[in-house]
Write a structure and sequence with these properties.
This protein is α/β, with parallel strands linked by helices and about 140 residues long. It contains six helices and five strands, in the order βαβαβααβαβα. It comes from Chryseosolibacter indicus.
Length: about 140
């Protein structure tokens, strides 16, 4: 797995963005972090960048292009699909979306939690897993 690429964060809520970025900093992530407010902006970045991201963390409920549509667009693009970029949903309320993501090739679906401590624990688990896995992009 390419562990040196940027972490792509797709999150429309400014407060959640700030909390996630703070948590990633506290966890000591060394990767560059690219932040986008919706799937459309993130997809434009993925089409244009020559660097393969380490991981995509995406919210689901966002304006312009939601996370589910964003992931489907990645899977429909042969170039992006072949990169096998790990894709994880992280949402405030995942329950309404569980059935909608069953047919997507995602590597995880996590709840942000109700506290900074829960968010920290969740992100720590996600990052530890992807740093330790031998999954090849």
């Amino acid at each position: 797995m390419r562990k040196e690429g940027p972490l792509v964060l797709v999150e429309d809520d400014a407060d959640d963005q700030e909390l996630i970025l703070l948590t990633l900093k506290e966890l000591g992530i060394q990767n560059d972090i690219k932040v986008f407010k919706n799937g459309e902006e993130a997809l434009d970045f993925l089409y244009q960048t020559a660097t393969d991201p380490f991981l995509i963390l995406s919210d689901i409920n966002m304006p312009k292009m939601d996370g589910i549509t964003f992931k489907r667009k990645i899977d429909q693009c042969e170039i992006l699909k072949k990169k096998c970029i790990p894709f994880v949903f992280i949402s405030t309320s995942p329950s309404p979306f569980i059935a909608q993501v069953c047919d997507l090739s995602i590597q995880g679906f996590f709840e942000k939690g109700n506290s900074l401590r829960q968010l920290n624990e969740t992100l720590k688990i996600i990052l530890t897993y992807w740093n330790m896995t031998k999954h090849l992009n």
